[in-house]
Amino acid sequence: MKIQAKVIPGFGVASGKNGDQRYPKGTISQQLPHFEARGLDLTSYFKGTLNVDITPYSYKIGNPKHFFEQVNWSDHIAPENFYFFDITLFYKNEAYEGLIYMPDPKTKEEHVQMPTTLELMLPKVNGLQYGDKIFVLVNEKQLKVSKI
Hints:
Layout: E1 2-8, H1 27-37, E2 50-53, E3 57-61, E4 66-71, E5 80-91, E6 94-103, E7 117-121, E8 133-138, E9 143-147
Antiparallel strand pairs: 1-2, 1-8, 2-7, 3-9, 4-5, 5-6, 5-8, 6-7
């Protein structure tokens, strides 16, 4: 399903922009080796997430591309589960293949996202700004998207 979305600010924790001393290089940098050990290489992606608001849509987890249980990636929080789903972002006549990155809401303790927000892991997308309208193509077998 292809839907319009809007680029929005995130918490800045995934990239390390928010200055959280527990994760000076960002949570993604700390998590990458754990995902790679489970067979998912994310080194070609930007070391952070791009947050997009998909209102008036929400989502339900279907059959994820990857699901990792009890990833013990930090001494500061309990192990978390992670989902990954295929995504294609369309911006200025370019298509960017990536993944939706989703810490399991059941195991995530901090920085919980709204049910209309998706966190995307992509190669660097030059020129993208907060407020920009983009389109995303979601694999509905993996993540079911419906109007609220």
